[in-house]
Design goal:
By secondary structure, the protein is of the alpha+beta class. The chain is globular and about 55 Å long. About 45% of the residues are buried. It contains ten helices and 23 strands. The strands form three sheets. It has an 18-stranded antiparallel β-sheet that branches. Strands 14-17-16 form a three-stranded antiparallel β-sheet. It catalyses: chorismate = isochorismate. InterPro entries: ADC_synthase, Chorismate_C, IsoChor_synthase. GO terms for molecular function: isochorismate synthase activity.
């Protein structure tokens, strides 16, 4: 009988709430779910006695209502309710039985949804809710948004994790979720200091498959500047090939930048959603980075996972060896087959895999490195990729420590590392900053995920600086490497709705 009554009540309440869910303030939020929790005790709903938000003071004693309504993603009520709310939450992902926002190694940033939000208002949507200063990393499976910093972690060369643990503990005391998390970006240069922040508000939930927002009116490009120019870049490639032939250098990655001055400001959140929608299997990100005189946001859609850690499990997915995609399916398939069989690209890829395996092997009790790479596709490029997995020997080694151990890989720098860094410093006429660094997070349990900062741009009002690079080995052709960078620029150009420069070489 109770089941029948509960079913009827659920049907009636759901029907009553349907117009509410489509009203202003509720509508337009894709994936919104209303959760109805029935509790014993009878009576009619009394909103003044219902705990809708964790931490809010209850008025008038324990709840005496038939049902409580809260939005998916909101924290659970602080006080009583039914037996379902009082029952300890156990099982995988919450071994301490403290509920979805309590301390737990598996409680959500890398697993089930976890939300820590201010006392009033719904949890922000990770992509659609982006606002200036927010950190967002939309991985293939989950999206994490962080805001409202309560602490800062400064990482200096020679200090494995700086004062990370102390800052995370302070963040928890200041209201950050448990486990507290540090988010941010590592610069390309491992000798430069890095700044991470500990946010008070963290939202992590499954990545939605929302289509990208419409491009809107086309941007007018007022000024376009390449650094270096196409001709200068080709000359730099030729010099790098010469250096490889004469020295112990085996590979170096040379990048160039494309500066655009547009007719109106670019909203980093809009660009983030465009990139995430056009690259659903990539790592879309937005993170504030130091700018010369105004707010600067690094926005991108990287295809490459640097490293992820969950418990003792470690994952990497290095990419090296690339070919531009084509709108013609037959041509596109031929390019993929050609890349898979390219001796030059397979050799370039092998440098990266060997370097990462060498960095991880002393830290792992087991490491699985496939013998052959596989093809990985983005909207604009084909890549050779290898999925590396391992098991940590020491559970105290955090994802941040792993990221700093393997960065920079030969995929973004070259090999041997020091010789390649010196070549980059001499042959590139600009400072990479956080391009080709890493963007990610690390929590107090050591879990985390870091993506290589590729296919990205620095956005500052109406000024946008795009980056792209190519790996140079002994048999590299300057024209082909130049074409590869032009193809990689198109990830962000397509999101902006800006046509490639007509003077850029074809990608044949």
């Amino acid at each position: 009988m109770k089941k029948i009554i509960t079913s009827i009540l659920a049907h009636e309440v759901s029907a009553a709430l349907r117009p509410v869910a489509s009203a202003p303030g509720w509508g337009g939020q894709t994936g919104l779910r209303v959760i109805i929790i029935f509790t014993p005790g009878g009576g009619v709903p009394r909103p003044d006695r219902c705990d809708r938000t964790k931490g809010r003071r209850r008025r008038g004693g324990p709840p005496q209502c038939l049902g409580r309504v809260r939005r998916h993603g909101d924290p659970p009520p602080a006080g009583g309710g039914g037996a379902a709310d009082r029952r300890p939450r156990r099982g995988r992902g919450n071994r301490e039985g403290t509920g979805p926002t309590g301390p737990s190694r598996r409680n959500g940033i890398g697993g089930r949804p976890v939300t820590s939000v201010p006392a009033r208002g719904p949890a922000p949507a990770p992509l659609r809710g982006h606002r200036p200063g927010d950190f967002v990393l939309a991985a293939p499976g989950r999206t994490l948004l962080a805001r409202d910093p309560v602490g800062e972690v400064v990482l200096r060369p020679g200090e494995p994790e700086g004062d990370l643990r102390e800052r995370l503990a302070e963040g928890t005391a200041a209201g950050a979720p448990r486990p507290a998390v540090a988010v941010g970006a590592l610069p390309f240069d491992p000798g430069a200091p890095a700044r991470l922040v500990v946010p008070r508000t963290v939202v992590s939930m499954p990545r939605s498959a929302d289509p990208p927002p419409p491009p809107g009116p086309p941007f007018e490009v007022r000024c376009r500047h390449e650094e270096p120019s196409a001709r200068e870049y080709a000359r730099g490639v030729a010099r790098a090939v010469d250096r490889i032939s004469r020295t112990g250098l085996r590979k170096v990655v040379l990048a160039r930048a494309l500066d655009l001055s547009l007719d109106r400001p670019v909203d980093p959140g809009w660009l983030l959603r465009r990139l995430a929608g056009q690259n659903p299997r990539g790592y879309a990100f937005a993170v504030e980075v130091p700018g010369a005189d105004r707010r600067t946001t690094l926005v991108g859609a990287s295809p490459e996972l640097l490293v992820a850690r969950r418990g003792r499990a470690v994952r990497c997915h290095p990419l090296a060896g690339s070919a531009a995609r084509d709108a013609d399916p037959d041509v596109d398939r031929r390019r993929a087959r050609s890349l898979a069989g390219s001796e030059k690209d397979r050799r370039e890829h092998a440098f990266v895999v060997a370097a990462i395996a060498d960095a991880l092997r002393p830290l792992c009790t087991a490491l699985d490195v496939p013998a052959r790479p596989s093809l990985t596709a983005t909207a604009t490029m084909w890549h050779l990729g290898t999925r590396i997995t391992g098991e940590l020997a020491d559970p105290e080694v955090s994802s941040l420590a792993l990221a700093r151990a393997v960065h920079p890989t030969p995929a973004v720098c070259g090999t041997p590392t020091e010789a390649a860094r010196q070549a980059v410093a001499e042959l590139e006429p600009f400072d990479r900053g956080h391009y080709a660094g890493a963007v990610g997070w690390c929590d107090a349990e050591g879990d985390g995920e870091w993506a290589v900062a590729l296919r990205c741009a620095e956005v500052s009002d109406r000024e946008v600086r795009l980056f792209a690079g190519a790996g140079i080995v002994a048999d590299s052709d300057p024209r082909a490497e130049l074409a590869e960078t032009a193809a990689k620029f198109r990830t962000v150009l397509a999101a902006l709705g800006v046509e490639p420069h007509p003077t850029e070489p074809p990608t044949e």
